[in-house]
Every structure is written in structure tokens, then in C-alpha cells.
Design goal:
MmRce1-like; transmembrane; 324 residues; CAAX prenyl protease 2/Lysostaphin resistance protein A-like domain-containing protein; single chain; mainly alpha
Length: 324
């Protein structure tokens, strides 16, 4: 059964066309959706820069030990921007609806399993494609690259093969913990922003949310996050490519599961699998971030293929309107 049935248009035309319908005396007219979207994006970006400002002062950057805590705090800014925008520019609907907080008790459980395991399998396939393409040399016996990384921190407490096995087991459960942190972003991207764009075609929603999501990472990407071996502005462009492809897959999860819980879980799984290339790489190599794993072109190829399958099987209809 198609988990994403065709959705009817929300109205005869974009919600921003023409003046808002008059309401009862003394009531506040809802702000146009486009205005809500723009205000949200500006707030999310501004809050991200404010949170990450300490990373830019004093030349500390990502090498500063507390940097991960600031990045984690930055992940809450889209949700905060969404709540602030909804309060400043209300449209008369419950905040729960605007943020996509529906819990998929009766539908979408199969999609949640895909959201949990799919990114892990996709990340593993991207590593395999990197190895086939020659951009990553694997060591699946001695895990010499991982051992090299750990030995730089001190003596190994256990054999490296045992440590790899423990890490892989943790990788299965990490998406749930990471998904809680990722919800701070998803309440903004697949929650508020998607809702504000619900009168647009699905392809437009994916493109806008993907680019906004990618450029929102500017405070850390420009410091070398994710693409440390690329010029800062080029890295930001690469990040936007990655997030746009991923946004298409998360849009299917969002539509099929009916809320942001699914995208949050999938987002958490992607973050959890980010270090997979380091786990299986051979020692003595410095692979390019653009050519290895899910963040590099092997991952882009696989994500684009997955999006094509969803479109061809009509599970991600480019022309479908978003539910209101």
C-alpha cells in the first residue's frame, strides 16, 4: 500500500495571494505564510550565530574542548525559532499542529523502522562505494585506522576488534539518543518551515528546506565542520547539496509517518553513522571529506538514487501539495 496517498490542494491558490480574510472584531489576522517562513529562517540563523559566537572569539574554533556543547546547543535553535515565530505571528492553529508533533500511534511504524535502520545501511553502502571507487582503503581485519586514532589518546583498554564490536552495537541504539537532539532541528525544518510552505509543490519544499538547513550550518561549517579540507564557502555549498538530498528522503519519512518523530530518528541515525568511515579505514591515509562516506559524493549518489526510487514508485510525488 502506498504510505503517502495523494494530498488534495489546501485551497485554490497560495495562501499569500490577496489580503487575509477579515475576522471577528478585535481578532488578529494571521500573518501570510511566506512572512512566517522568512521570519523563522532569520530567527533560526541569528540564534545559531549567537550560540556559536564563542567559537569565533579568541580564535578557539572547533578545537576548543567545549565546542561540542555549543554545537549541541545550536541544534535547539530551529525549534526555539519556530516557537517564537508561532507566538509572534500566530495563525490560529495549535502549536502542536504547526510543529508536526503528531505521534504515529496508528500509522507509520514501518516507516520509523526504515528511519532507524535506513540511514545506517545507507552510510555503510556509501563507505563500500568509497572503497570501490578507491577513495577509501579499508581494513576490516585489524581496523588499523581506528586503532591509530585511539592510540593517539592513550593505551587501548581492550583489543581493537572488541572496541569495534562494541561501537557497532552502540551504533544501533545511538539513533534514538541522537534523535532527541536532532528533534531540535526537525521541529524547525520538517515541522514549522514545512508547515509554512504547505501550499507549495513538494519539490519546492524539499529545495527550500534543504538549502535553508544547509546554510543554517554556516557558523560551524565555515570553521571546518564536516568539510575541513575544503575552502569555507565551498564547504557551505557542499553542505547545502548534502542537506538538500537528505531533505528529500526526510520529506518522505515526514509525510509517511505523519509527524517529526520519524525525521528526528532518521536525522539522529545519520549523525550517529557519521564516523563510520573512520571505524573501518586503514591507517596512514587522509581521505577527502568530499570523496568518502555519506557526506561525500558516494553518499550523494546513493541518496539521489534513493530519491529517484521514491519518485518513480510514486511514494514521493513532486507535484503533491502538503497537508494542512
Amino acid at each position: 500500500m502506498d504510505p503517502t496517498p495523494a494530498l488534495p490542494p489546501t485551497g485554490p491558490g497560495p495562501a499569500t495571494a490577496g489580503p487575509a480574510a477579515p475576522g471577528p472584531a478585535g481578532t488578529r489576522r494571521p500573518a501570510p505564510r511566506l512572512v512566517r517562513a522568512v521570519v523563522f529562517v532569520l530567527l533560526a540563523d541569528a540564534l545559531a550565530w549567537v550560540v556559536c559566537l564563542p567559537l569565533w572569539t579568541g580564535g578557539r574554533g572547533l578545537a576548543w574542548p567545549p565546542a561540542p556543547a555549543f554545537i549541541l546547543l545550536m541544534m535547539t535553535t530551529p525549534a526555539l525559532a519556530a516557537v517564537l515565530t508561532a507566538r509572534l505571528l500566530p495563525d490560529g492553529r495549535p502549536l502542536r499542529t504547526v510543529l508536526g508533533l503528531a505521534v504515529p500511534w496508528r500509522r507509520g511504524w514501518g516507516v520509523l523502522v526504515v528511519a532507524w535502520l535506513g540511514p545506517l545501511l545507507l552510510s555503510a553502502a556509501a563507505v563500500a562505494l568509497s572503497a570501490v571507487a578507491g577513495t577509501l582503503v579499508l581494513d576490516l581485519r585489524g581496523f588499523s585506522g581506528y586503532a591509530e586514532t585511539l592510540e593517539a589518546l592513550g593505551p587501548l583498554p581492550l583489543p581493537v576488534t572488541v572496541l569495534v564490536a562494541v561501537t557497532l552495537v552502540q551504533l544501533l541504539f545511538a539513533p534514538f539518543l541522537n534523535g532527541v537532539a536532532a528533534a531540535g532541528e526537525e521541529l524547525g525544518w520538517r515541522g514549522f518551515l514545512r508547515d509554512a510552505l504547505r501550499d507549495r509543490r513538494r519539490a519546492e519544499v524539499v529545495l527550500v528546506t534543504g538549502v535553508v538547513w544547509g546554510t543554517w550550518h554556516a557558523p560551524v561549517v565555515l570553521l571546518g565542520y564536516n568539510y575541513p579540507d575544503v575552502a569555507p564557502l565551498a564547504a557551505l555549498g557542499l553542505m547545502a547539496v548534502f542537506t538538500t538530498l537528505l531533505a528529500a528522503l526526510l520529506e518522505w519519512v515526514r509525510a509517511a509517518s505523519g509527524g517529526v518523530a520519524g525525521p528526528s530518528l532518521a536525522h539522529g541515525a545519520v549523525n550517529a553513522a557519521g564516523g563510520l568511515p573512520l571505524l573501518v579505514a586503514a591507517a596512514g591515509q587522509r581521505p577527502s571529506s568530499v570523496a568518502v562516506g555519506l557526506l561525500g559524493w558516494p553518499g550523494w549518489v546513493l541518496m539521489a538514487a534513493a530519491v529517484a526510487v521514491l519518485v518513480l514508485t510514486r511514494r514521493l510525488r513532486p507535484a503533491a501539495r502538503q497537508e494542512g
